[in-house]
Amino acid sequence: MRRKIAVLGSLLVAAVAGRAVAQCADPRPAPAGPAIYVVDQNLSAAGSATIAVKLVSGSGNQVAGTQNDLAFPAGVTIGLKGTKPDCTVNPDINKGGTAFSFRTANCASGSTCVRALVLALDNTDVIPDGSTLYTCNVTTSGTGGTVAVSGTRASSPAGSAITGTAGQDGILCIGGGVTPTNTPSASSCDPPRAAPAGPAIYIVDQNLSAAGSATIEAKLVSGAGNQVAGTQNDMAFPAGALIVTKNNKPDCTVNPAINKGGTAFSFRTANCPSGSTCVRALVLALDNTDVIPDGSTLFTCNVTTSGTGGTIAVSGARLSTPAGSAISGATSQDGIICIGGGNTPVPTPTQGSSSCDPPRAAPAGPAIYVVDQNLAMDATSATIEAKLVSGSGNQVAGTQNDLAFPAGALIVTKNNKPDCTVNPAINK
Hints:
Blueprint: E1 35-38, E2 41-43, E3 47-56, E4 65-72, E5 76-78, E6 80-81, E7 84-85, E8 87-89, E9 99-103, E10 112-118, E11 132-140, E12 144-155, E13 166-168, E14 170-174, E15 200-203, E16 206-208, E17 212-221, E18 230-237, E19 241-243, E20 245-246, E21 249-250, E22 252-254, E23 264-268, E24 277-283, E25 297-305, E26 309-320, E27 331-333, E28 335-339, E29 367-370, E30 386-389, E31 413-414, E32 417-418
Parallel strand pairs: 1-13, 2-14, 15-27, 16-28
Antiparallel strand pairs: 1-3, 3-11, 4-10, 4-12, 5-11, 6-7, 8-11, 9-10, 12-14, 15-17, 17-25, 18-24, 18-26, 19-25, 20-21, 22-25, 23-24, 26-28, 29-30, 31-32
């Protein structure tokens, strides 16, 4: 039986009087394509962060490779991986020839400049529109800064340049201060709902600040006494939350931590509501009947949102045991993707509520640390992240540390071992 993490965490928004505070603007939507852009972020505190660089193909364009330069200001310091920028290509786009390098030519004073060349030497596969091209680990300080994007180029599978490829800088703002109370607008998002009672498959609700690219998450609630080894469900994506396609299939990815390598995603037309795009997800393994831990993410899917978003309907939920028997009573919960949150009520402190301090910045190196998290009061499952700060001049090839998990944050077990996963990007 999976043991769940129960962490009390309720963020209380308090008014600040008598002094000025930093105000972060809402993150901007993706630019018009063709373009390469860094996603804006509003961070609660300085420290470690990861920026995402994304592609907007533009109408009718097929992009197989890209190039762009990034200029990191003093408030957003690019990390090092050996002697190279600490950037990682998105493995989903299959561009194994991608390279990152530092540049000094035409680099603005006070900045650190990086060139990113995203390509493959063994394929000319099209990169899906809206894809994350790569990510870079940075350390932020002060109030952050703007990561400038320039020298943007995109090429077709035939190697032809795609004209008019633009760039949009990424703004990393730290210390959003007190967000003014909004006047109710046309779109007001309700708080995301809790997980349903099990056994069930559900899509996690999301409130997005702007339309554009997003990733949905389908999760499992096993229900009391049930052991689930495989699942099946259908999803109907509305016009306001379009599923992205990848090599003529839905752009969905099974959670590698659940070890279900036989998982498949396919488009469906039968019984698909008018105006929707329907997908079937079959989560299973051909080489094991391992139990999927209760509360696990089953898979994620990339979508493109527009307007005020929409509801992704979930139906046909089926669960099976390791012996292949159907688990009766399986239900589902649709996922609401709401754009333009409008007026978010300020929580009123109540007896027994927990007020969480802002997450702390990374410590001075050399150090290993667990990233602070503030979770909703009803959260039961969470994933912790252990990170490295090498320290000035140090090169780290291996680490060791011990963790002590308290009763309020129990470690989950997987095959009689701690349910922990090494970051595949560090090749350890």
